[in-house]
User: Fold these one by one.
Assistant:
Number 1:
Amino acid sequence: MTPQATGRRIDERIALCHDALPPQERRAADALLTHLDDLATYRAAELASLAGVSKATMSRLFRSLGFADFDEVRDHVRALRVAGEPRRTEGTPSLAGHATNEAEAIGRLLETAPIPQAVAMLAEARRVLVVGWRNSYPVALHLREQLAQIRDSVTIGPQPGQTVGEELAGIEADDVVVAVGFRRRPAVFSSFVGEAVHSGAAVIVLADPTGAPHLRRATLPLECPVQGALAFDSYAAAMSLVSVLADGVLERRGRAGRDRTSAVASAYDRLGEIE
């Protein structure tokens, strides 16, 4: 295994060396790929039995792939999941169990998040810029759409074909930047947060625990879980948080907020945009 291949994911390592492996190790590699998603449920001897090879052959495969032993393989696969790569996990719950897990996560978030402070910042800012990339963009867009019904001067970025440099250029100290950055963030997220902080504006960072370095730089960090027991991340807690924030902003802005929502609804009616 070359140094370049050692830094790759396990499935990529197998693909790179599969044809060069001895026949028994190829069988072991195929079994390993088949059981990557539930690897934590097996011991090395059980995996070797499933592949129809000896435990020694399975151990040689691990070394061929650049791992010291089976424990290191399992740690590698767990790290992929923590980084956001979709993988089924041990003991995947029923739909009812999943719903219970989601409800508990939302409850914990709403109990611990600094919601009153975030509401005050979003309600009183001169201007609010909400930014998110990839899977974070729908959450950012939802926040923008809710706030835009309550107050003016709420923008979203980056839109298709848009960069955010020109948006940040107009940001001032009495503005708020909301940076939504859940895991598997693009590399530009870090530099964006740094530039937003440098602008002097208040910066709210909404991120999962893997975004700790960005959360620490925020004026107000909002840590929100996305990893559950299922293969893909869930944004139920994040969307619930957006709804709670928007409701709080509406209450805080009082008559001005209600007048804004009425004006938006009237415009919908005149334009025939909403059924």
Number 2:
Amino acid sequence: MQFRFNIHHFERAVRDDSGGYRVYTTPKGQVYPSITTVLSKTKTESDKKHLQDWIDNTPHSEYISSEARDIGTQTHQLIEDYLHNRPSSIKVDLLSIAHFERIKVFLHKITEVHGTEEMLYSDKLKLAGTADCIGMYDGNLSIIDYKTKRSDQRESYLTDYFLQSTAYSIMWEEMTGDPIHQIVILVSSRKGQLKEFIVNPDDYKDELLCRVKSYYEMDNCKS
């Protein structure tokens, strides 16, 4: 299958991971935190405790987390190469190939690619981030994200991913003028689950704005 591209021409943000957490510099020189940083720092105390309990009570949790990141990175690269109609030359684990082959079924619903690994930003939100894919998915301009997981997923587990993609939808419209009304999260789990989650970003905008406001209020308290 050959994917068709419709690339938008605009000035991208520049990512910097050297300071301990990810920031982006916009073409006008503004430095914004990544949406993933904002969501991480504004998790509920219950969510933070749940994560810490998992770290404390799971043998080799650091290795498990590192392996999961590697598998996710490899799978993302395989998908990006596939969408760009080019052979992949990276060395990958068999598990990454399995995730890619599962997700590929849904990639065929993409009829036009508007961008991959797009470094976006919003002056209104004072945020930035890197979107996996923007494209026409089942006839709708969508933010498309891919996730690899150790366990099977439910929609209720993915709220922060929906918030992250909602932020990308706002950034994209601010930068291009093209509104996005659909978020697509494609999930492959190690247990063999393949799920397609589709939501409307409008349903998550209020919560996103609340989390962004909370982040900047915490940030101001520290200064």
Number 3:
Amino acid sequence: MLKAEHLVDTYQSLTQEELINIIAQYDALIVRGDVVISKDVIEAGVNLKVIGRAGLEVDHIDIQAATQKGIIVLNAPQGSSASAIEYTLGMMLALSRNIPQAYLSLKEGNWDRYKFIGSEIKDKVLGIVGLGRIGAGVAQRALAFKMQVLAYDPFVSESKAKELGVSLVSLAELLSKADYITLHLPATVDTRKMFNKEAFARMKKGVKLINCAHAEILDYEALIWALQEGIVSGSALDAWDKLDKHYTTLLSMPNVICTPRLAFKTQEAEAEVAISVAKGVLAALKSEPVATSLNIPPISKEMMEKIKPYLLLMEKMGILVVHLTEGRIKNIEVKYNGGISMADTKMLTLGVLKAVLNSVFNEDINLVNAPEVAKAKGIVVKEVKSKEAVNFVDLITVTVGTDKGEHKVAGTLFSKTQGRIVEIDNFRVDIDPTGWLLLVSHEDIPGIAGKIGTVLGENRINITGMQIVRAATEDDFAIIVNIRTDIEDRLMDKLRASDGILSIKKVCFDG
């Protein structure tokens, strides 16, 4: 497909230096595996118009640098969905019937038919955590096995769950009732080690756990503990770093099945991924819409220059407002005041939408498919414009409404290039949206800021900024703390337990 329209060169392997030396002659770059496309490569690619990743993961591509250079980055997310869905079911069946263990025993010359008696999955309760594309596919296939399916996903509507034929329940109910639990969550700040010792302690004894999604969502030390205590009777794992220190321990356990990240690897997926990325690159080179673009849809060079400084700010605002909200998202409004209202703001609104949806859904959402995903989730997106300036020459306000209320974040540019968040709900603030942020709601009593500073200082966490603010219209008080590194859950719990602190949330703007 590529050679029919363009001259194509292929390389089995290149060092970063070699890639930097040759990239200037190419209009498009397609990579597989763990090839790193750094900022230096992108800067050297003076003719690059598109970078295609033949696969799902794009961690090795500096998308921000590509966006700033006007280079479209695309991947092939759909090709491997069926593979991951089938693999999850395969792991569940292998776990239920002890297939790998029986095979290894037979290879050693044993005939232990009774040692490996398993259990049927028919009539068992399957708990699916994360009902995105892969989770929904697992649900449909599990129903064909005559399993009862429970699902937890606070961002999926009852109607969507009913359409799939599954029961939408709370996480607590799912943990207490499920015979099998399979994880299909995105790896975010909020889901990191979501399945910890506390979560395992709430599970039905004898549960079987499958994780073919992301290693980060599972606390492996807690899993080892749950296996040893008999809370988890077996686990099938395909998501982890192969160098993880828990690898050896888990491999030594007879009731654990481990595979080296194979869920997305099939011949069909490899072929579909290759065709998909080729189609995307060809479309990008023709300036046609690219359905799998991860950064920007086609836009005129002149308009791109005008809105470019706002793009990163919109993403950060979307990340922050999601951390403020609770419950299922119902609507998102983006309001443009001042001169920015006269620009083509479609891409900016899509940028907010993409950031919000990617923070809560385990799907590969980009600027092109974000509206479709929002519509499928029952989320109403509204864009409002007014030439009237409010407090600033240009002001953009993002409001997210859920079934539990609404929150808003407003931002603007300082010196025409520096994005700042200037309002959170009714609080006037001045936030540089980088690094980590703590949002603390507190009572009107002295010493709160000192307590926070003491806890962070004692644990060698640098504070890079602190603001003490009061709501404009209500007697609400907040402290906003910029910190250089992440803060452990135990320290968050310690702060929450402090007198006068009503609530505390943390936000990571950079990942």
Number 4:
Amino acid sequence: MIIVVTGASGYLGRAVAAELVTAGHEVRTLQRRPSGVDGVMDVLGSITDPDVVVHAVAGAEGVIHLAAKVSLAGDPAEFQVVNVEGTRTVLEAAERAGVSRFVQVSSPSVAHAGSALAGVGAEPASPADARGDYARTKAESELLALARDSASMRVVAVRPHLVWGPGDTQLVGRILDRARRGRLPLLDGGRALIDSTYIDNAATGIVAALLRAEEAHGRAFVITNGEPRPVGELLAGICIAAGVRPPQWSLPAGVARAAGSLIERVWAIRPGEDEPPMTRFLAEQLSTAHWFDQRETRRALDWQPTVSIDEGLRRLSAH
């Protein structure tokens, strides 16, 4: 097929585009800078520019939409413009171009209201309950995409959870940076059980959603390795793989949440140059269970992860 991947200059987008090329598809990518993926045709521009989007999707049979503003803080209006209106622009262009398969790459945070998610599936996205502008706008964009599901354009939403692996400058990079500076606390001892997804598994799961759109359309699916670990154990594994001392100190989750709320208010007035050191959303993510029943995901997408957490950590160490 001719497949368009938005956001292919990002860590996960590059992996998805490369997976499609390997499988023999003709791949176009749409993002603001070159993707760096061999064998694709880059279209440079923003998903908020209708003319660029129309050009990118012309003649395509499938679209995998990953482009988004991803951050713990920032201008709420920018989240809205990129994540919601940008998604609307891509959907409308895809419909007009006759695209038959559309995968909306979402996030489990769209269904997180601050309490544990233990052994659940893809709970309904809720913009009203989502924590923070990123999660809220991703929830809105997922609902927007699924509402476009039709006989002519099959839409599937997938929510990969905590994607990591070699070369990741976001999750892994930030964990290591904070650990090196002694700014990575364990909340309530790091006991919360969480799922994560090795990069190869996230990419093949997203591609599987595109290929299974006829059977799985109109629904959302969480994608993970299906190997929940205590958050402290996963953080330690990533740190040890990189030769960095794992986090040694713990904070009560309630203290971290209160501090995160205060920092968010200060950041809104005087934002720093990087991500805030703590937010209420981050404190909740580090202190509540987030693991998911993968049986329906694997059945509906006809997909299985192939790289275990332990093998992923070995590959990270080698990298």
